[in-house]
Amino acid sequence: MKITSVEISVFELPMYPTVTQVVPVGDPADLRWQQAFSKGGPVPVQVMQVMTDEDINGICTVGDWRYTELTWRQIAQLRELVIGENPLERDLLLSKLKAVSRFFEPGWYGGFDNCLWDIEGKVKNLPVSELLGGSKSRIQAYYNTAGSTSEELIRDGEEGIAAGFTVLKDHLPFGANKNIETFQEFRKVFGDSIGLMHDAALVNYTFDEAVRIGKELEALNFIWLEEPLTDRHYEDYVNLC
Asked: In 179-205, which positions are buried (b, 16+ CB within 10 angstroms) versus exposed (e)?
């Protein structure tokens, strides 16, 4: 089996505009910036197809404008290195792509890797989940709360609970001090029977703040703390753990 082509299709979905705005949040003495996505604008979303000479093709969404959209140069580089190769030799292909990744974003070929998994699953007549170790028939879902104030977030969380969710995840952007106050308020309002999680992607904590936040969430029995530091500060993550 050989790869014969790599194709990219682009679809527009009415989600967010292609330019991200930021708005100030928090106290003037502790000013932070929060991403602001105005809904309603068209978003280009890429879908990749990896074609083979045996008509077994892999397909995967590549991503959107925020972080994973492939550039023309990346697409050209991908085609140059993988066409004619065996898609089942994943390690060989990924090592080739890694060798040219110095000036590309980390993980730029992730969508291609997903397509390889799709091809292997079709060859073996197995779902990819089985190739990766198996799957569960049921999982617990969580509800992403939305709102610009703690009051709005609490009301939205209550709507999620009324809809049957037992776990809520927040994206509080207010800064460490205000966020801690809001975590405490969440636990008081929602009670101990509701699972709580904090996604810190919008906050940009310092290392010391992340430590404070982690200890506070542990005391409040939160399930997890997500992305407390800038995602590529690997050494800080090691020290935080």
From this structure: bbebbeebbeebeeebbbbbbbebbbb
The boundaries of every CATH 3.30.390.10 domain in the chain are: 3-131
Per-residue pLDDT of the chain (241 residues; tens, 9 = 90+): 999 999 999 887 766 555 667 777 666 776 777 666 555 566 778 899 999 999 999 999 987 666 668 889 999 999 999 999 999 999 999 999 999 998 888 788 999 999 999 999 999 999 999 999 988 888 899 999 988 889 999 999 999 999 999 999 999 988 899 999 999 999 999 999 999 999 998 888 999 999 999 999 999 999 999 999 988 888 999 999 8
Superfamily of structural domain 143-240: Enolase-like C-terminal domain (3.20.20.120)
Rounded to two decimals, the pTM is: 0.68
Q: Which residues touch 124 (CB under 8 Å, ≥6 apart)?
A: 131
Q: What CATH number was assigned to the domain covering residues 3-131?
A: 3.30.390.10
